Amino acid sequence: MYWAFDWVWGLPLLVITITFHIYMFVMMEKKLIRRPRGRRVLRSLPEYIAPLALIGLGAALLHGIEASAWAALYVLVGALPDPGEAILYSLNAITSYGHAEIFLAQRWRLLGAIEAMNGLILFGLTTAFLYAAIGVARAPAQS
């Protein structure tokens, strides 16, 4: 019965983090990746490596922000009382690393599984966006 609360808290945060992730990646790509104009050759490595590195750094920052949102939720609902433990647990859950000896109370364990599912989706989106950004960065100019 109490797992219903896990879904009530977890699903909205899952939707929010996915929406935020997509929005931020679209913004990063618009700001950092530009198609070359007037050329028919592929961009050189130095021309696109810096924007892609910044997108990679942005991805790490996004994942950290999203893990922090989950950690805040754990503290808010009382699943983990200490913010430091909450962020460590969250980073372990969202990356599916899972080696920290921190456990949620029995009634909140499904919430941790929902976060792990969220992490798999977010990392899949990150991979897709990075792959697409590389394709755009390396695309020949269209005249």
From TrEMBL:
Species assigned in the record: Methylocystis heyeri
Parts of the chain that traverse the membrane: 6-27, 48-74, 116-137
Taxonomy, superkingdom: Bacteria
Designated name of the protein: Two pore domain potassium channel family protein
Record keywords, A-Z: Membrane, Transmembrane, Transmembrane helix
